[in-house]
Q: What sequence folds into this?
């Protein structure tokens, strides 16, 4: 909370002290904009706590549009690519979809989690390859499963502070290939060998070689601070909230069924086809597999054996994919003749105990972001929550519906309330569509924006949990039609 | 195996244990008497699983008392006779405790070994019935528990039975003691502890059902000797009597070496196990219950049980909660003691400033703390992440910055009154009014240190023992001016540091140092009389001291020993005389300061395990040689000369009011000075061995050496009146 206040005051401070921009001029150009949007929104939202979330003296920031590559199970069609190839595909798709002139883009930010060491600033490598100007700077952010959320909110900060007008934010993850390293001992020996000058020195270093030096080091799948894998933590979380295996399987089945329906009805319009070099063009997500509860019940627990409840069928799977969104200052978008899809409004990052509350980020972030925006649960028309595990989603739902939890762990007087399931992840979620860690955030925002347009709502709430016990939530407001 | 059921504290994990079931079939039906009110146990039936919940009233732990035992048998009989019930789950509703072993009060109230044998046999019957249960019984264990149906016959199990040490749940699983681990849960819609027990129960019920339906088979359904992780080969080897004899011998040797034959129980346990294996389990059970009965009546047993009670008492803050909890601690001096104090504070989450005057000295202290924590990482009791988080509680610095926020300052600078005065004045110039100033000193009177204080009510002594992270004792010293809240605060910090605490009155040497000094004086005299350091060490360790007397001088530091001996010698005069301080003086002048300088009576080298005698000591010993007095110089006399001086001084401390209770005297002697635990401390020793015998010894030595052995009045009173006991 404090951090956000600080961030806002920092932003207003920067705004006030911008040497080149008269703050009067800014205010002047913004007032008519915000009032016009208020008028337009009024019809659609008579029952809302607020007609719009536009704030005086702060630029309105819009998502013009967003795309993603099809999300594929790791080890399938993308398995020979490098992460920047996927990211480039998302960027090219975005350019194609929006026809934005490359030289208008002020900045590019990508989120990623497992970094390919050759392209540690994957945003820059992808941008260069996608034909962006070499004068457009790019950086990469990482914040576990909310990395591309971080990319988007960084863009919001840059635009709100007047530093940029047009920013591309995105995310990428390629789990088909991960950096497997030599062991520390082997690396040390190789580095020492590099420095050795004489043959004798080299020989003495080599003589210290032991066979166990060759055992490789894999990127950690477990939480660094607790050494617990996320699935294990999710299983304990589900148990703590007394969520049964059946409930979890049912929720997963719901996700897959809804995703299948959305795919069949062509609702997943953010997906752009990707011609993979040397392979067929990939046109759709390949992890959507509605099964039957009986089939799912046959699976053995994946983490806590033999009595755990989290299985492969009720967890999100390892996924390859990339996403990108075009974010602009509203006046810039309008000046360029765009019809934006949505406003990006208040957002919130939270963090809590990485051991026992690893995946409860949405529970903590939701009431805070609603409060900050001055909205209530009833104002939200569209919920898009990241589904890491069925058990995690159901635990969050239970926690949000518990006064006891709110009072004892969140320091709040009362629960925030249960999001109505009929508004919740209606086009599937990470469980079914897939979860490329770094790319999921943009998918959530685009799903919320597209659903708001399709379903006619005004406010969408995006929320996600992330490794490290962190979480994020953001309000997406439909752009008036 | 009741005698040996270890008190295991399963801290991190929760475990479920399946007891074996074998062929005996019981088909007698009795009506369940549901109206019977039970106080320790209640049970309900979930489907076809009986859930038996243990919860002794008004106690933090469940212990195997007679009431619990009889209620349990009642319930089990109902379970066995009910046709609806196909399996059972045994669980405690107390978070963190299943059954913490036998009830010591119950054992204590027994006056004969037959009574104990009787209790043991009843318990055996219960366990035997459980083992032979026709219906699967799953024990869901959360927290400390008796070792639960231990399979025996393998060295690992031997090890645990003998030392009674706690086993971490993951190790218990590896050892095959438990079948399944359930990890504790975090918050849900109710408190984590509550939900964890519920969850454990749920998991145990599915297991019980699975066992009854034969969907799950318990892995460990083998015989007495074989457990599932023994390979075919070893179990074959164990079937050969000769191999078994070899194993018994090996174990016995090891035990003898470790216990010096002072603790009867471990050897008896081996006997019992041997009987069980060689003559069948019935003979084993019989032998076990009888031996247990005998053991319970031994002096060692009484002494150890007394010590256990004392330790429990010294883990409480009888001064109440301090007005202001210490959140910011500051330690002055980053030497061995200062860094040790910092280590036991930061690893409990206490923010600690460690201050020294030079960067190298500070660096050594910080490294000591890091190493102490890192060693735990190597032993896998900490994760590297936890280590890092703990280490960040430590702030190393060379100035007094931040002391204005300190709630307590503990100085651990060199033992020099002027220096202590200086740091006290320096600290008082910056610390806030409420801040406690504690002095870690082994002999300087706190009252004298406090003379320069502006606020003597806030000054207190906190005497830690080296190495601080290993030694459990903390001796807190109060002056007449020390306020009650200051004492409460010091005790509170000490308890949070995990210490066992005695609170004593100020005076030269307080309690611990004062008891040790006359004994040390005797050590020097004995060395002067021609007994070599190695011989002396073996005499003291075979009496039950964990560290030999000569080694102890090396460990304490020869300079420290001399410093203390001189100071206390001045205060107490003749009574503390004996050996010549000249010996210590000469050692110091040659640089033989003990372990810290690499040489003392022995030579200490990094990485060398067996220490050798320092041959350069020969000339010093020779030059100070005194004739010995043959009638008081037998091995036994030498042992008693040391111990009686110690004991006499301890009792004098109680007589003079330095000690408030005999309990604190025993705890201080055992946990701080290594007084033989099997004797239970000086006061238990007098009670159990008879004051008269000790006075007789003292009189004999008094005749030879004079006043140093004159028994104090309180001891004489006890000798004159056999009904007088320190512990009633």
A:
């Amino acid at each position: 909370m404090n951090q956000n206040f600080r961030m806002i005051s920092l932003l207003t401070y920067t705004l006030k002290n911008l040497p080149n921009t008269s703050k009067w001029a800014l205010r002047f150009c913004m007032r008519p904009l915000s009032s016009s949007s208020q008028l337009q929104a009024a019809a659609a939202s008579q029952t809302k706590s607020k007609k719009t979330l536009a704030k005086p003296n702060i630029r309105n920031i819009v998502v013009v549009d967003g795309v993603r590559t099809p999300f594929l199970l790791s080890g399938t069609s993308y398995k020979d690519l490098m992460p920047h190839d996927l990211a480039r595909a998302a960027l090219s798709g975005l350019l194609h979809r929006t026809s934005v002139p490359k030289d208008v883009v002020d900045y590019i930010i990508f989120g990623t989690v497992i970094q390919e060491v050759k392209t540690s600033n994957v945003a820059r490598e992808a941008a260069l390859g996608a034909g962006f100007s070499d004068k457009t700077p790019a950086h990469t952010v990482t914040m576990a499963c909310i990395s591309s959320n971080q990319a988007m909110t960084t863009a919001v900060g840059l635009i709100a502070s007047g530093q940029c007008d047009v920013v591309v934010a995105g995310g990428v993850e390629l789990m088909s290939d991960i950096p497997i390293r030599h062991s520390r001992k082997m690396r040390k020996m190789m580095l020492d060998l590099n420095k050795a000058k004489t043959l004798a020195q080299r020989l003495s270093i080599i003589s210290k070689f032991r066979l166990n030096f060759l055992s490789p080091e894999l990127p950690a799948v477990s939480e660094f601070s607790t050494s617990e894998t996320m699935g294990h933590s999710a299983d304990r979380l589900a148990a703590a909230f007394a969520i049964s295996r059946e409930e979890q399987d049912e929720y997963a089945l719901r996700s897959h069924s809804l995703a299948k329906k959305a795919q069949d009805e062509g609702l997943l319009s953010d997906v752009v086809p990707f011609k993979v070099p040397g392979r067929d063009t990939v046109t759709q997500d390949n992890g959507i597999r509605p099964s039957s509860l009986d089939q799912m019940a046959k699976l053995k627990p994946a983490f806590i054996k033999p009595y755990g409840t989290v299985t492969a069928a009720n967890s999100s799977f390892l996924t390859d994919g990339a996403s990108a969104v075009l974010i602009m200052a509203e006046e810039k978008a309008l000046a360029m003749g765009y019809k934006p899809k949505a406003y990006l409004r208040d957002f919130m990052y939270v963090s809590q105990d990485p051991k026992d509350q690893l995946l409860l980020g949405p529970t903590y972030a939701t009431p805070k972001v609603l409060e900050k925006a001055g909205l209530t649960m009833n104002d939200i028309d569209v919920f898009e929550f990241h589904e890491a595990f069925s058990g995690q989603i159901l635990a969050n739902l239970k926690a949000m519906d518990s006064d006891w939890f709110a009072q004892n762990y969140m320091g709040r007087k009362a629960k925030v309330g249960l999001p109505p399931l009929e508004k919740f992840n209606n086009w599937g979620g990470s469980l079914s569509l897939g979860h490329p860690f770094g790319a999921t955030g943009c998918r959530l925002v685009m799903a919320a924006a597209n659903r708001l347009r399709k379903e006619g709502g005004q406010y969408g709430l995006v929320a996600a949990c992330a490794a490290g016990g962190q979480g994020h939530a953001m309000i997406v407001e439909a752009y008036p039609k | 195996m009741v005698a040996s059921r270890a008190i295991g504290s399963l801290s991190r994990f929760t475990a479920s244990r399946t007891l074996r079931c074998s062929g005996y079939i019981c088909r007698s039906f009795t009506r369940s008497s549901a109206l019977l009110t039970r106080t320790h146990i209640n049970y309900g039936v979930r489907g076809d699983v009986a859930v038996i919940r243990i919860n002794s009233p008004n106690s933090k732990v469940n212990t195997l008392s007679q009431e619990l035992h009889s209620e349990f048998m009642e319930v089990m009989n109902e379970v066995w006779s009910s046709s609806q019930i196909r399996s059972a789950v045994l669980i405690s509703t107390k978070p963190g405790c299943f059954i913490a072993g036998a009830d010591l009060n119950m054992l204590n109230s027994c006056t004969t070994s037959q009574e104990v044998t009787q209790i043991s046999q009843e318990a055996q019957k219960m366990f035997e019935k459980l083992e032979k249960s026709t219906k699967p019984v799953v024990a869901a264990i959360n927290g400390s528990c008796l070792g639960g149906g231990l399979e025996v016959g393998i060295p690992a199990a031997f090890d645990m039975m003998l030392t009674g040490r706690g086993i971490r749940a993951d190790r218990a699983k590896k050892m095959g003691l438990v079948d399944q681990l359930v990890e504790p849960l975090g918050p849900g819609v109710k408190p984590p502890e509550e939900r964890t027990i519920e969850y454990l129960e749920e998991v145990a019920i599915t297991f019980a059902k699975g066992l009854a339906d034969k969907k799950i088979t318990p892995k460990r359904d083998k015989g007495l000797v074989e457990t599932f992780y023994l390979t075919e080969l070893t179990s074959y080897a164990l079937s050969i009597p000769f191999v078994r004899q070899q194993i018994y011998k090996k174990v016995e040797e090891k035990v003898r070496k470790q216990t010096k034959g002072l603790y009867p129980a471990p050897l008896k346990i081996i006997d019992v196990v041997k009987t069980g294996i060689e003559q069948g389990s019935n003979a084993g059970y019989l032998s076990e219950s009888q031996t247990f009965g005998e053991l319970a009546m031994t002096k060692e047993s009484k002494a150890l049980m007394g010590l256990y009670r004392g330790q429990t008492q010294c883990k409480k803050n009888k001064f109440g909660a301090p007005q202001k909890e210490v959140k910011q601690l500051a330690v002055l001096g980053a030497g061995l003691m200062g860094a040790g104090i910092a280590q036991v504070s930061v690893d409990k989450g206490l923010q600690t400033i460690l201050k020294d005057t030079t960067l190298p000295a500070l660096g050594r202290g910080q490294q000591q703390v890091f190493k102490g924590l890192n060693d735990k990482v190597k032993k896998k009791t900490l994760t590297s992440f936890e280590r890092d988080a703990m280490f960040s509680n430590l702030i190393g610095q060379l100035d007094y910055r931040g002391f204005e926020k300190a709630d307590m300052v503990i100085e651990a600078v060199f033992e020099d009154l002027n220096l202590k005065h200086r740091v006290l004045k320096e600290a008082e110039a910056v610390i806030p009014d409420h801040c406690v100033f504690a002095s870690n000193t082994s002999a300087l009177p706190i009252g004298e240190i406090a003379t320069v204080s502006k606020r003597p009510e806030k000054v207190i002594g906190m005497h830690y023992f080296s190495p601080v992270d290993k030694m459990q004792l903390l001796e807190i010293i109060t002056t007449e001016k020390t306020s009650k809240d200051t004492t409460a605060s010091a005790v509170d910090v000490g308890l949070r540091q995990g210490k066992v605490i005695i609170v004593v009155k100020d005076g030269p040497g307080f309690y611990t140092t004062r008891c040790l000094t006359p004994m040390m004086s005797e050590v020097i005299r004995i060395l002067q009389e021609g007994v070599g350091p190695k011989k002396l060490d073996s005499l003291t360790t075979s009496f039950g001291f964990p560290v030999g007397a000569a080694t102890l001088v090396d460990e304490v530091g020869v300079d420290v020993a001399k410093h203390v001996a001189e100071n206390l010698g001045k205060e107490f005069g003749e009574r503390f005389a004996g050996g010549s301080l000249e010996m210590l003086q000469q050692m110091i002048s040659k640089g033989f300061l003990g372990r810290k300088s690499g040489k003392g009576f022995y030579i200490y080298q990094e990485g060398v395990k067996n220490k050798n005698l320092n041959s350069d000591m020969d000339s010093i010993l020779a030059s100070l040689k005194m004739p010995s007095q043959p009638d008081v110089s037998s091995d036994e006399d030498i042992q008693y000369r040391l111990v009686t001086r110690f004991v006499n001084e301890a009792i004098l401390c109680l007589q003079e009011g330095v000690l408030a209770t005999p309990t604190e005297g025993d705890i201080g002697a055992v946990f701080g000075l290594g007084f033989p635990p099997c004797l239970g401390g000086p006061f238990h020793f007098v009670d159990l061995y008879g004051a008269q015998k000790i006075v007789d010894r003292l009189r004999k030595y008094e005749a030879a050496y004079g006043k140093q052995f004159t028994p104090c009045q309180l001891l004489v009173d006890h000798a004159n009146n056999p009904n007088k006991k320190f512990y009633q």
In short: The CA atoms of residues 361 and 471 of chain A lie 4 Å apart.
